Amino acid sequence: MSQAVSTYEGWYVYHDFRKIDWNKWKSINPSEREQMIQELLETIQKWSSVENNRKGSFGQYAILGHKADLLFVHLRPTIDELNEVKLQFDKLDFADVTSTPYSFTSVVELSSYTIPPGTDPFSDPAFRERLEPILPKTQYVCFYPMNKRRLGDDNWYMLSVEERRKMMKSHGMIGRSYAGRVRQIITGAIGFDDWEWGVSLFSDDPLTFKKLVTEMRFDEVSARFGEFGPFYVGCRLTSDGLTSLLSDNIK
Ligand code: 76R
To answer: Quick one: pLDDT band at residue 247, thresholds 50, 70, 90?
Structure first.
């Protein structure tokens, strides 16, 4: 049996993808729509306020393509709070014009591959901040779930910890060459969701996602072991942005 990797967990994360039923939304009279937006914004205000005392983080995005229209990302210290947040949304009148084409439940995860044995990572205060991250306020987000393959000789879970560490080191080096251009939050979902990890990338230039993911595809750990779910790309929304997405040019 190979030795399991030890991991450090931080805040729990809920990626809530929403699709808007535009026919239904447009059939509602304007004053009622206005009221529904206000109610939504008040709830969002509450969700965002957790960042003030570092009790979590919140981000909202407009998603491109047919797979979803909106993405709400919640980070909270407990999974119970994520459940509350989910129900708070579902009880809003606005929820009645949306559906959930995708969601992902996971927890911020840092693994020990690149931590020298015998050192306490918590001696660096930045380590806790990485486990409890405030979502970067970049213009663009990219999210996808992934697995590590278990097939014949390409079985990640049968490799020795040294082999895995070597590959993760190379992976981390590529990642670090994107420092300042992209931020990543890796969340672990084993036992929580249908894929093993969620990858959330943040950048002010969407092309950076393509460049980084392409470069990693050629690196051994992704080339041999990476299996990927659906990709989502989106633009960060302010409250005003969300209001105009829902109100501008509505006939
Ligand atoms: O956290 C660290 O800085 C240590 C190095 C590191 C680890 C251990 C690291 C760095 N990652 C780690 C773990 Mn990563 N990462 C991905 C993807 O599309 C693909 O091919 C893969 C998706 C991207 C784009 C990415 C980016 N990473 C992991 C794990 C857990 C593996 C396990 O435990 O088996 C996964 C699934 C994963 C996937 N990674 C970085 C990045 C970037 C940009 C970095 C540099 C981070 C930095 O230095 O700030």
So the answer is: very high
CATH number for 229? 3.30.70.1030
Mean pLDDT of the chain: 97
Is 2 within a domain? Answer: no
* Residue 161 domain flag: yes
Backbone angles phi, psi at 126, to 5 degrees: -65, -25
Tally the C-alpha atoms within 13 A of residue 3's C-alpha that lie toward its C-beta: 11
* 201 within some domain: yes
Q: How many CB atoms lie within 10 A of CB 20?
A: 16
d(CA 39, ligand 1 centre) in Å: 38
Structural domain range at position 47: 7-247
Residues 131-165 have pLDDT tens digits of 999 999 999 999 999 999 999 989 999 999 999 99
Given a cut of 80, is residue 251 above it in pLDDT?
Answer: no
In a domain, 89, yes or no: yes
- The count of structural domains within the chain is 1
Clarify whether 144 is annotated catalytic.
yes
Q: How many angstroms separate the Cα of 193 from the Cα of each of 10, 215, 231, 235?
A: 17, 27, 16, 25
* Whether 58 contacts 135, CB under 8 Å: yes
Measured distance CA(84)–CA(80) in Å, rounded: 6
pTM value is: 0.96
Known binding residue 184? Answer is yes
Contacts of 172 (CB under 8 A, 6+ apart): 113, 114
Q: Which of 61, 102, 144, 232 is catalytic?
A: 144
- 145 assigned to a ligand binding site: yes
